[in-house]
Design goal:
396 residues; alpha+beta; nine-stranded mixed β-sheet; 16 helices
């Protein structure tokens, strides 16, 4: 039974959003078009916001809400079938759709301050014995809880080429860009500085010489006061208790000029640092055990430890607030779409919906609850769509 139409106090989604969707290149030949691209994508987004994850569920949402959708969509031939949703999303240019998401996100966010975390994620069920699983590299604005952009690749090794491609799409002036060790490449550091942003890059064995130098440097513990008296540095310790454990993190940052003779390949490298994390498990199955981890970093930030610590700590948000949420709330890891551009375009839809739900401040419930409310309450769904139209209205 179709849901009741929205109250008169609320209007239907504003025209700019639909016009923006219509600007995307339609992959279909004219004679095969029974439904407009705008209608197909708008229903797919609305359905995703309301809890739908598959082509069949998109069509089911459309049939259920047909009377309401007809108040602002054309729908010349009714609701598209699940086959139509599949064909359109499989054929739609995935790079154009992802670039559209980037333009939309940055128009919504304006000048993005703070930390932008970049990381990759594999949609595990999107591959099989003959098809590589979709791997997506995303940029996440940690303060705004917003996906700024994404680039899809076929295998994880392509992250090294995907990250520079993603950086080209982004406006990053005055941001701090954080990337795991796979992004610790001289070309990527240069590309970030070309965007007038700072970088904080994790260092592991893929940069053997640099990693060995940092291991040797930070092998001098805090108790080695003679050594550290010669090497200027800053230290910051943070302690917190959560999930049955007490975690202590100690951040140390040293001017690169004081400890690295060969910094030339790394554009504007100013500081090197490490983070020591010690976890004391006080309850649960690991109660009584202690774990210790040390991580190494290079950065273009000056040797002031507080901004460095904030950037390192903020990076986890792309794993938690973005990737973990996509799996738990949007079932991304379980989605079996595998043909053509379908997996990549569904990933773009999910990140768009996630960003919209994250921007809402009217609900205190979690994201899964917000998807349910959107499915039950047309007024709330319209509220989310108002967020979807940036105040600057600059998307073309």
């Amino acid at each position: 039974m179709p849901a009741a139409p929205p109250s008169p106090a609320l209007s239907v989604p504003s025209a700019p959003l639909l016009a923006q969707l219509a600007a995307l290149p339609d992959p279909r030949v004219d004679r095969a078009k029974r439904h407009s691209l705008t209608d197909v994508l708008a229903i797919a987004l609305l359905a995703t916001l309301c809890g739908a994850d598959t082509y069949t569920q998109f069509a089911l949402f459309g049939v259920t809400r047909a009377a309401w959708l007809a108040t602002f969509l054309e729908l010349p031939n009714g609701i598209p079938s699940h086959d139509t949703f599949a064909r359109v999303l499989q054929q739609l240019d995935r790079k154009a759709f992802a670039a559209w998401l980037t333009t939309w996100s940055q128009a919504l966010a304006g000048q993005v301050p703070g930390v932008v975390a970049i990381d990759g994620k594999t949609a595990r069920r999107s591959g099989d014995a003959t098809t590589a699983a979709l791997h997506t590299v995303s940029a996440w604005a940690t303060a705004q809880h917003l996906t700024l952009g994404q680039v899809s690749t076929d295998v994880k090794s392509n992250e090294i080429t995907a990250i520079p491609e993603l950086l080209l799409l982004l406006q990053l002036r005055d941001c701090i860009v954080t990337i795991d060790a796979i992004g610790c490449q001289t070309a990527i550091a240069t590309a970030i500085r070309a965007k007038q942003a700072h970088y904080v890059l994790a260092v592991k064995g893929n940069q053997r010489w640099l990693h060995d130098r940092l291991v040797a440097l930070f092998a001098h513990g805090p108790e080695d006061t003679v050594f550290w008296a010669r090497a200027p540095h800053e230290t910051l310790t943070h302690r917190e208790k959560d999930h049955g454990r007490i975690e202590t993190r100690t951040y140390r940052l040293v001017p690169a000029a004081a400890v690295l003779a060969d910094r030339a390949p790394w554009t504007d490298l100013q500081s090197v640092g490490c983070v020591d994390a010690t976890r004391h498990h006080v309850s649960g199955p690991k109660a009584g055990t202690v774990e210790h981890h040390r991580r190494y970093f290079i950065t273009s930030l000056p040797a002031r430890v507080a901004p460095f610590a904030h950037a390192v700590r903020s990076h986890w948000q792309i794993e938690n607030a973005c990737h973990w949420t996509l799996d738990v709330v949007f079932n991304e890891d379980q989605n079996r779409a595998r043909r053509d551009a379908g997996p990549a375009n569904l990933a773009t839809l999910r990140r768009w919906a996630l960003s919209l739900l994250r921007q809402d401040t009217t609900q205190t419930t979690g994201l899964r609850g917000r998807r349910l409310i959107a499915g039950w309450d047309p007024d709330y769904l319209l509220h989310l769509l108002r967020i979807a139209v940036p105040a600057t209205d600059t998307i073309s």
